[in-house]
Each structure stands twice: as C-alpha cells, then as structure tokens.
Amino acid sequence: MADKMMSGPDKMVSVRQLFGIDTDLQVPAFSYRDDHVPEIDHAYRFNPEVTLAILAGFAQDRRTMIQGMHGTGKSTHIEQVAARLNWPCVRVNLDGHLSRLDLVGKDAIVVRDGKQVTEFQEGIVPWALQRPVALIFDEYDAGRPDVMFVIQRILERDGKFTLLDQNKVIQPHPAFRLFATANTIGLGNLSGLYHGTQSLNHAQMDRWNIIATLNYLEAHEEAAIVLSRVPSKDTENGRVLIERMVTLADLTRKGFAAGDLSTLMSPRTVITWAENCEIFNNPALAFRLSFLNKCDEYERPLVAEYYQRCFNEELNESWLVQTKVGATE
C-alpha cells in the first residue's frame, strides 16, 4: 500500500458528488489511506468558495493560502478536504521556535553497526517534497524571516529545492501540494489583534496563486454542528439553548473585531460549553468554566453583559454558590 501511495493519486472524483458543490470539476484522489491522511469529521461544514479554492490547489497544484480570524477552522478545512481525497497531509506551525534547520535538516550523530557516525537528517520540507503530501504551514504570517526565505524556494509550482550541505537538488513529487493559513495577509499586526505576526515580503506573497478568506459559519450552521457533537441537546429546549450560545459567541467575535475583547469564542469553544452544560447542568457555570475564565479580568463585565443579553440572566458569583457540582437530590 505504501508503494501505491508513493506513486500518487490513482483515481478522479466528482466534486459535485463528494462535496455537493454545483460544479463539473474533477479532482485526483487516492483509493487508499495511510497514517498521514486526516480522519474524516462527518459533522464538518464546508464553505463552498473556500472548498473550491482548496480543491484547485489539489487538482492544479496551485499554492493556496487561507486567511481569516482565528477559530474559523482554516487548517481544519484543508485537512477535511484532504481526508475526503485520502490525500496525506502534514501540518507545521510556524511559531517562533521553528528554525531553518527544522525545515531543511541538519547533521546528527547516530549509531551504525555499533559505531557513532554523523548523518544528515532531512527536515520536514525535503521529506514532504519527495512524497505525495499536502504540506500546510499554519500561522504563516508569524514565521521568522530566515524560515520564510527557506519556504520561498518551494513556492514556485515546479520549484526545485537545493540542499547546499549535501550538494543535492530535490525535484518535487508530482503530487506534492503546498498550503498555508494566516490571520493576516502578510501586512503585519496593523489592527493590533495579532501580536507576533510579521509583514511579509511582497515578492513572496505574490507567489501564492490563490488566497481565500474564511469567515465564521452562519448561525444556523454552527448550531447544527454543536447539536451533532452534543446530540442530547437536540430537544426543543436544547435547541433554544444552543441558539442563544451561538448568538453569544457571535457577540464576542464582533467585540474582538472591534477591539473591545482580546479573545473570542470559536465554534470549538461553543461545543466545549455545550458539553460542559451536560456535566454541570448549569449554562452559567459551564460558561464560566469554558470561556469567561479565559478572558482578561477587565473584559469580564462586558462578556457578562453579552450573557445577560442572550439569556436574560445576570452572570454573577451566585451561580457558583447555588450550584453543587455532582450533588444528587
């Protein structure tokens, strides 16, 4: 099976049948799965425009970047497309600790036949380049300058990668694909919301063939996802509760975008809140433990106001006193 995977995609699939998008586009896919193929999340909801952008990346080898606020599911969107194509996928987070050597490779001492020898160990870039792998660079706009210039070498569609220390030129595998996710589009922290992001070289940004923007789901779609993850809430009262939770989440996102809050509720946080409601049987307490305690102390009154708007109840310390966790009557 490994040999079959290394040879590349072995079939074509219909986007209309696989994703329900009204297009005649056919995309290459694999008949087999390996350990690097993400698990399919059947509850995931696809944004049609972003899905088409990602599929173009897979079908036509277009370098594709997904931009949007955190918590919108940018990386997950790419992974879930890859999962349905059985396409191996590897994510690399470009945090401040990732070095050029991590990407390219370095000499390391290994034991061969009982003797210590120096051997070159490939980094993630040469490893992925030689395989039918979708390589995703997360937090692309937070990468260090020396790391970004390594990536620039492979942004050309047929760009070869040179290992100077090894006097070796790597030819990309025909099924190698490159994606990235970013909170900004290379302009840096202009809004003040994303500390640590960098202003990227315009020549590098120009090498990305497709840039798509992913926003949060519509309220009814997000509520449907939460209900699919917490099916016990799929009752008349439960659906009303979930709708209020999603409405509150949307208020935090608008507050974050306006600069009033330094954090927001992602769909993942809403799901966690709903799950915690099952444990504590109290939406207010579950809200405190799922989100409010993450917020800056000075921002909590505003978040409490959001809660009051959505639930018509004051959020105060009395909730913690009134609720006896785990107690039975």
TrEMBL record:
Gene3D superfamilies assigned to the protein according to its UniProt record, in alphabetical order: P-loop containing nucleotide triphosphate hydrolases
Domain ATPase dynein-related AAA, first and last residues per copy: 65-188
Top-level taxon of the source organism: Bacteria
Domain Cobaltochelatase subunit CobS N-terminal: 9-37
Pfam families from the UniProt entry: AAA_5 (PF07728), CobS_N (PF12556)
Gene Ontology MF terms in the entry: ATP binding; ATP hydrolysis activity
PANTHER family referenced in this protein's UniProt entry, alphabetically: MAGNESIUM-CHELATASE SUBUNIT CHLD, MOXR FAMILY PROTEIN
Name of the protein this chain belongs to: Cobaltochelatase subunit CobS
Organism: Photobacterium sanctipauli
